[in-house]
Amino acid sequence: MRNPDQSVQSAFFADGTGTSNTLILGSDTAVISDAELLLAAKLLQDGETVAFPTETVYGLGGNALKPSAIRKIFEAKGRPSDNPLIVHIADLDALNGLVAEVSPLAETLMTAFWPGPLTLVMKKRPEVPSEVTGGLDTVAVRMPVHELARRLIRLSGVPVAAPSANLSGKPSPTRCEDVIRDLSGRVACILCGELSEIGLESTVVDVTGEEPVILRPGGITLEMIRSAAGCGKYDEAVDRKILEGEKARSPGMKYTHYSPDAEVILFEGEPEAVAAEILRRAAAYTLAGSRVGIMTFDERVKIYADSGEVLSLGSLERLDQVAQNLFQTLRAFDSGKIDVVLSETVEDSGIGKAIMNRLIKAAGYRVVRV
Ligand code: TXA
Ligand code: MG
After folding, report:
1. Domain-by-domain residue ranges, the chain?
2. Contact at 8 Å (CB) between 152 and 52?
3. Number of H helices and number of E strands within the chain?
4. CATH tag for 263-369 (out of 3.40.50.11030, 3.40.50.300, 3.90.1150.10, 3.40.228.10)
5. Whose CA is nearest to atom 3 of ligand 1?
6. Ligand 1 within 6 A of 139 CB?
7. Which atom of ligand 1 is nearest to the CA of 202?
8. Nearest-CA residue for atom 7 of ligand 1
9. Secondary structure class of 31 (helix, strand, coil)
10. What is the reported pTM?
11. 23-239 classified as CATH 3.90.870.10
12. For residue range 176-198, what is the model confidence (pLDDT) as tens digits?
């Protein structure tokens, strides 16, 4: 896949620093030194904002116990203040200060999937500022497995609230250059690492009841949760539009998400019929003067040759790679100044459920069944 952001990377990384007042440490090839990490940890502790890599996507961290730090996160992202943040910890001990109790169900899932891409929603302790939880009586907690993230959290000595490190509404960043593009000049520090391994945000599971309820699908699938807990289900609103005035079980469900500047339209159905419809619409949009992007898979790229800016998400046989590539591909269409993206879809199960969830939201629920 082409890399449209090469120029940005060299502009920012040539001398190891950024061109704004944001401190940029490390790169996708250079290792961050202990001294640099300590500096970032100190900034966090002092209530500043620090973006850092995790195995899911990059996060924008702040001291979860400092309301002023939380406000800086919301401000930097332009995020609605009622959309709560995930609190990241490096060790189980840190849970004591955050949650009222760890139920047997929560413990089962922690044992099975922590550290890793699983966020658990539990009853909060009063010490957790309401700025973090958007006024809810629950708090979402995750223990990432990413080595740098864990070292940073541990060194800071505080729980780290961190939403994805994108401007609100944009696709989550899986590469440091995407974080720099969205947040340079808006945050104190950006720690650069490699491409995020999973590429989609963590699975968010409410464990306040008897049965785990998935509020956001991710790398830990429903099947995996059921095999660990013996039960589990999706919240009924996971993939649908939240109605005006409706109270979502997870506030994040209400907001526009993962949207590139281009309009995205999804096509579902038999592969031949999908291809025919995408080709027909691509021709019509092109005729009307729109710049067309097509998002497809390695096996099907050839079908669309010369029909627009054609980008592959990877092989249909490797949905893990499709997940890893999804957000950077959505961002690539913006760099290519595309007006409309016509996208193929994947099967709605396993990791495909998480991919489809992000695609549906990126498309603003515009799904054409052919
Ligand atoms: O993988 C991830 O989860 C990344 C990395 C940085 O860890 N973080 C992330 O955070 O995706 P964010 O803020 O972009 O998404 C957090 C989601 C939102 O949909 C929010 O509504 C939901 O979690 N959430 C947070 N606290 C909640 C709570 N107490 N109850 C229900 N949903 C909650
Ligand atoms: Mg986010």
Report:
1. 23-239, 263-369
2. yes
3. 11, 16
4. 3.40.50.11030
5. 202
6. yes
7. 1
8. 59
9. coil
10. 0.93
11. yes
12. 999 999 999 999 999 999 999 99
